[in-house]
Write the structure tokens for this entry.
Amino acid sequence: MPPSPTNSPSPGADSPDSRTPPASPGSPARRTVLGAAAASVPALLALSGPAGAAPSARRTRLPGGGDLGPNVIVFEPSTSGIQARLDEIFKRQESAQFGTGRYALLFKPGTYHGLNAQIGFYTAIAGLGLSPDDTTINGDVTVDAGWFDGNATQNFWRSAENLALVPVNGTNRWAVSQAAPFRRMHVRGGLNLAPTGYGWASGGYIADSRVDGEVGPYSQQQWYTRDSAVGGWRNAVWNMVFSGVEGAPAQSFPEPPYTTLQTTPLSREKPFLYLDGADYKVFLPELRTNARGVSWGSGTPRGTSVPLSRFYVARPGVSAATLNQALEEGLHLLFTPGIYHLDRTVEVRRAGTVVLGLGYATLIPDNGVTALKVADVNGVRLAGLLIDAGPVNSPTLLEIGPQGADADHSADPITVQDVFIRIGGAGPGKATTSMVVNSRHTIVDHTWVWRADHGDGVGWETNRADYGVRVNGSDVLATGLFVEHFNKYDVQWYGERGRTIFYQNEKAYDAPDQAAIQNGNMKGFAAYRVDDSVTTHEAWGLGSYCYYNVDPSIVQHHGFAAPTKPGVKFHHLLVVSLGGKGQYERVINDTGAPTSGTSTIPSKVVSYP
């Protein structure tokens, strides 16, 4: 992607009069324990203080629930000036790609008329019903690319969830690229995924959504749609992948390049905030096997609810020690919109813990710590967070399970959803490996792990990050895996029986020369590598692109590397040289035609071996 325009930071928090009324704050006496995993041992320890501590050293127990803060803006149908408020926030966020503003726009159940909610950077819009159809906007939720001259390849970090839309002209425009999920939506019309003028667009993600009309990707290079229903799909450019989608086009890769799986092997939708009467709760959708279609289409969705009183509601400025205390006391975490500096690791040790971010809440590890670690326990759900590397190198930014984790989580997996990782762009950042997955049966559902290629603090060594994602655990499933621009391997997979449905990658643009990416005798590091020790692995719909604009003579031997074994299977792969800035010699291992020239035509392999 070309460098972005210079953006100034957006203004700070909204005025106090925009604050949503406090949710019902629960006291310890009112809290209910949910399941054996949240049993009373942590609570008893918190109430009695550390072993051997004098009464004066006892900590004050943290409250659950509370106010959602100034940057969560809640509307109801009778609210006056909704459009003006939406326009005000969009004006702040439209081009604030690396700004500090963070917003969640929440709509209470009901019907709204004549709105056009334009969604800028770090802005999440969502309904507060149990079903998308509980909250209907007769109007549009729009993403376009006027701020960037019609180029949508940098429309990142925004989302739409849990709403029904009746578009004014029959079709809603959602022209995004990475880290911009469209989840749990009902579009009573069509959906256009391209910007006005059909400029460039670089891929995206839809899940648990129903589009009654046709979806038109037009100029979108690649896209992944999961467990949804569409009235039709217009076209494909390089790589369109569907799993569990009613109305999806038939399997036809390589021409047109549709990869279509009838079901998704395992899925569990993202937790979401909703209103039960006047009380906020978080809904936890249940695990589905061989899922197809939306999870909410026939009455009340299946799952469980947790009252907000069981969450510690975090506000910017809170310490990592306080966050860990809340977790130790048996509370879940809800991060309100804002930026959080962490001087120590936030450690999730209790089974069933939910860590949910609103409005692109951003965690920045200071002094080289790991931002977030999860123990090898059942049912932890991480969702809706941006982890931004700090200037001191962190060995890892996110760890799922400790090294050597081997517990069976098949009945209640850990899920990582809309958790995005960034190294550089907003300023210098470094990390050796961004995400490490050690726990078995983890589901990674839509992540963008990005070493920045533009913005502040960008350079081959300035935002050094050798590895993107490393999977050590067995039986891990990735649905919608976007990993880009790492100095060495973008994805390394060591666990057995791993599966990936859709993978999007660009190699690092800024390699200074061939020697900088040389991997022993191999030209370059693969975008996705399965270790030679692995005997069983399967992946569908993978693409890797190169744009070596610093030294266009660089040659990358292949995009994908894997052992040649009967149990290791790849379906529908491609590599692309963007404008001839660097070339690939092969697609996977020594298989596939080389790219050549400046025509940006993919080289494809239908299956391997």
Summary: Residues 82-93 form the longest helix (12 residues). Residues 1-56 have pLDDT under 50 and may be disordered. The helical segments are 41-48, 82-93, 320-328. The radius of gyration is 23 Å.
